[in-house]
Fold this sequence. Notes:
Layout: E1 24-27, H1 35-38, H2 41-52, E2 60-64, H3 68-73, E3 81-85, E4 88-89, E5 92-93, E6 97-105, E7 108-115, E8 118-125
Parallel strand pairs: 1-2, 2-3, 3-6
Antiparallel strand pairs: 4-5, 6-7, 7-8
Amino acid sequence: xxxxxxxxxxxxxxxxxxxxxxxxxxxxxxxxxxxxxxxxxxxxxxxxxxxxxxxxxxxxxxxxxxxxxxxxxxxxxxxxxxxxxxxxxxxxxxxxxxxxxxxxxxxxxxxxxxxxxxxxxxxxxxxxxx
Length: 130
């Protein structure tokens, strides 16, 4: 191709994702897969922390605050990041980007998107599910 961009799904199964040099990282979840390689959830979590902290100063990580293992990482992330999610922890919305007024319709999902205290507006996605 002729693009300056590459979007790749990083495979954490054997730690090879740590050889990538991403500018933008999106982490949707950390789950109990590949513990044979990492030895424990803490070992897997450390690998994701290393991956996120590899981004350059101009990069950013986008991480799902709904995932408890990701939330545990956040105090140790030294690079710029934004959180997204749909959960409400302790009565406080903890994500930078979140949705409210979510309605599942026959032809997709409608919701209002917010970035921190800013309303981004109503959205309609013509894909079933959230």
